[in-house]
């Protein structure tokens, strides 16, 4: 559907697709599934962040109350928070172009 979309549109479409492919019938992820998805699909962004207090807080929140589920909005907020604290973000900022 986004064959002619911009790189940014394709990136967000990919996030939505990955989320939807892992979500339950209510369109939500369990906290455990969210944590697993981050560890498998977002590894390069979270790698090396284990000692940062904010990272520990985010992961701790996912470990608590496993019956609570994460909706797409909360999932996106988690991705944004993890991206902003990531060491990889600085490397990305140093790249001038995607081509």
From TrEMBL:
Domain S100/CaBP-9k-type calcium binding subdomain: start-end pairs: 8-47
Annotated signal peptide: none
Gene Ontology MF terms in the entry: transition metal ion binding
Family annotation (InterPro entries): EF-hand-dom_pair (IPR011992), S-100_dom (IPR034325), S100_Ca-bd_sub (IPR013787)
Domain of life: Eukaryota
Xref: Gene3D superfamilies: EF-hand (1.10.238.10)
Protein's name in the database: SNTAN protein
């Amino acid at each position: 559907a986004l064959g002619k979309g911009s790189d940014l549109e394709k990136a967000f479409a990919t996030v939505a697709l990955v989320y939807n492919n892992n979500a339950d019938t209510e369109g939500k992820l369990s906290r455990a599934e969210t944590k697993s998805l981050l560890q498998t699909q977002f590894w390069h962004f979270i790698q090396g962040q284990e000692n940062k207090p904010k990272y520990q807080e985010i992961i701790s929140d996912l470990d608590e109350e496993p019956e609570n589920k994460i909706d797409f909005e909360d999932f996106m907020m988690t991705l944004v928070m993890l991206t902003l604290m990531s060491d990889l973000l600085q490397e990305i900022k140093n790249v001038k172009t995607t081509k």
